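[SOLVED] Predicted holo structure with S-adenosylmethionine

Edit: marking solved, answer below. Original request kept for reference. I posted the sequence and ligand SMILES and asked for the 3D complex as C-alpha cells.
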Amino acid sequence: MPREVGVGPFEGQWPSDPRLDPALLAGGDRRNVVDAYRYWRMDAIVEDLDTRRHPFHVAIENFSHDLNIGSVVRTANAFLASEVHIVGRRRWNRRGAMVTDRYQHVRHHEDAQALAAWSKDRGLPLLGIDNLPGSVPLETTDLPMACVLLFGQEGVGLSDDARDACSKVLSIAQYGSTRSINAGAAAAIAMHAWVRRHEFGQLP
Ligand SMILES: C[S@@+](CC[C@H](N)C(=O)[O-])C[C@H]1O[C@@H](n2cnc3c(N)ncnc32)[C@H](O)[C@@H]1O
C-alpha cells in the first residue's frame, strides 16, 4: 500500500480551536500543508501566513501560459513571499502550483510598466532575474530586504519592456552548454538567495 500523505479523521475529543475545520476533522486532512496546519481552515492558514510573510515579492511575465508559472508560485509559497505578481495575461497555468496559489496573494498587472509603477509607489526596487547582456551576478549582489524579483518566460526570457523597467538584472552562474535554466529553477535559486541573505545573514 502506498503511504498516504496527511492524516485521517481526528480521533478522540475534537479540539475547540476555531481555526480548525470540522469537515477536515471528520474526514481527514490530505492536503499539501505542513503538519502544523493539519485540520486548519484555509482562511485561517492564510491569516497566519500573513503575520509572518517575508518582504520580498515575486513577479513573472505571462504571455504564453508558461508551465513554470505554477512552480514559481509554489516556491513563492514555500519561501513565504509577500505576494506573487503575474504580468500580462490574467489566465495562467496553475498546474505546477499544486493548489499553493490559494495560500498566496496573487496580483495581476497588465504589463511591466504597471508592475514598475506599483513597485515604485511602495519603494520596492524591481530586480530582473535573467542572464541577459548587461546583467550582474546574483552571487555577488547584496539582495535588498524588500524588493520585487521579476522572472521571464521559457524561450524569450525577460521582455524588453520588463528589462527596461528593472533597476538591475541579475544572472545566475551557469557552466554547461544550455543557454539557460528553466524559470522555475531560476526562481527557486533567487528566492533561496534572499533566504540565505536575510534569514541566515549570509553576505554574498
Ligand atoms: C528559459 S529562460 C530564457 C531566457 C534566456 N535569457 C535565454 O537567452 O535563453 C526563462 C527565464 O528563466 C530565468 N533564468 C533562466 N536561466 C537563468 C540564469 N542563468 N540566470 C538568471 N535567470 C535565469 C529568467 O527569469 C528567464 O527569463
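OP edit: The chain has a mean pLDDT of 95. Thanks to everyone who chimed in.
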